[in-house]
Write a structure and sequence with these properties.
Order of helices and strands: HHHHHHH
Distance between the termini: 34 Å
Shape: globular
Number of strands: 0
Radius of gyration: 18 Å
Structural class: mainly alpha
Largest sheet: none
Helix content: 40-55%
Number of helices: 7
């Protein structure tokens, strides 16, 4: 493992402990049932975001703190899904990124009212939930098998987990959330002059 990722193993226990503290009740259901709930809810909420066509953004139907908190519990579970469910994970990330616009002077139309009223509180919860993206998944180890995972980024030998994690985070649009030294790309091979 390269020096760049040497400190990542020290974070593993902290992240796993955080995962247990913020685990959704959906984790108590059979995995396929939890995935169905997440997929259904997240697809519906993401349809209001207007990411691909901004003019199609709609106001959030979530009007109470209870509704937003329930939805956040579902999204939190979605961030814990196996990496093969990357489309659902992507929608969870998109929802949260749009909701974080509540911190800006002109928040997006799709941000629920309770998030607009208490942007700092919900931003802290969202960022805490984003940590689930970096917790190793059960049965998937540090290295996704060939052809799986969020990215086919460069591998660095047997300890390639952090490199794959970095590229997966970049694919999900989370590179700005990674510490600066982890945003660096692998050096490109020298060009042949001929």
């Amino acid at each position: 493992m390269g020096v760049m990722y040497a400190d990542w193993s020290s974070l593993t226990h902290q992240l796993q402990g955080l995962g247990l503290a913020t685990q959704s009740v959906l984790a108590k259901l059979p995995p396929e049932d939890g995935k169905q709930v997440v997929s259904s809810v997240v697809t519906t909420v993401a349809a209001n975001l207007g990411i691909t066509i901004p003019s199609e953004a709609k106001p959030s139907p979530l009007q109470s703190e209870q509704e937003v908190n329930w939805c956040m519990e579902v999204i939190c579970h979605g961030l814990c899904l196996p990496l093969e469910d990357h489309m659902v994970i992507r929608d969870c990330v998109n929802i949260y990124c749009e909701w974080l616009s509540a911190l800006l002077p002109n928040p997006k139309l799709c941000v629920p009212r309770p998030v607009l009223e208490q942007p700092n509180l919900y931003a802290r919860k969202i960022i805490t939930h984003f940590n689930h993206l970096f917790v190793p998944r059960k049965g998937q180890g540090n290295d996704p098998p060939a052809g799986r995972g969020l990215s086919q980024g460069p591998q660095e030998g047997p300890g390639a987990g952090p490199a794959v994690l970095h590229h997966g985070a970049r694919d999900l649009g989370l590179a700005p959330l990674l510490p600066p030294r982890h945003q660096r790309r692998a050096p490109r091979p020298a060009r042949r002059q001929g």
